[in-house]
Design goal:
5 strands; Rossmann fold; 6 helices; alpha/beta; 5-stranded parallel sheet; binds 4'-phosphopantetheine
């Protein structure tokens, strides 16, 4: 049986923390689908195409598929034949939202399990929103994101 894992998110933009989780998910899955949400609530910094293109540049493993999805994650996971949804848990503050989401997704797609992965210690504090904020004010994000992402942030903010 092929084990397909979905790693969903906004990826606005992809960080070294996301890359770390993709590698970890890959270790126990035959295929990992990085699923980029079309609708991310608030106005994203990067367009969908930009977010997908940056993931492609940051992740160069042929075992990783990058796709976008609109609508419910549970429907996308089922249609993709996935049995796992992978999410990262960085801190206690993530827990409540993640727990709610996992239960709702189970309700919508009972055959799909959510698994939580812990990121590398030095990436625990990292989030796309912090990266955007640091880059917006000209801070150094070179250790936090792939060089292509750093360049895209510089271009976006005219730095
Ligand atoms: O990186 P994020 O912003 O934490 O990712 C959140 C995401 C995109 C995984 C979540 O908002 C999502 O699954 N959106 C798709 C719509 C959906 O299925 N909503 C119900 C979730 S229970």
């Amino acid at each position: 049986m092929t084990r397909v894992a979905i790693y969903p998110g906004s990826f606005d933009p992809i960080t070294r923390g996301h890359e770390d989780l993709i590698r970890r998910a890959r270790a126990f899955s035959d295929r990992v689908i990085v699923a980029v949400a079309v609708n991310v609530g608030k106005q994203p910094l990067f367009t969908l195409d930009e977010r997908v293109a940056l993931i492609r540049q940051a992740v160069e493993d042929p075992g990783i598929e990058i796709r976008s999805f609109d609508g419910l994650l549970a429907d996308f996971a089922r249609a993709a034949g996935a049995t796992l949804i992978v999410r990262g848990l960085r801190a206690v503050s993530d827990f409540e939202y993640e727990f709610q989401m996992a239960l709702m997704n189970r309700n919508l797609a009972p055959g799909v399990e959510t698994v939580f992965l812990v990121p590398a210690f030095d990436l625990t504090y990292l989030s796309s929103s912090l990266v955007r904020e640091v880059a917006r004010f000209g801070g150094d994000v070179s250790r936090l994101v792939h060089p292509a992402v750093r360049k895209a942030l510089q271009t976006k903010f005219g730095k």
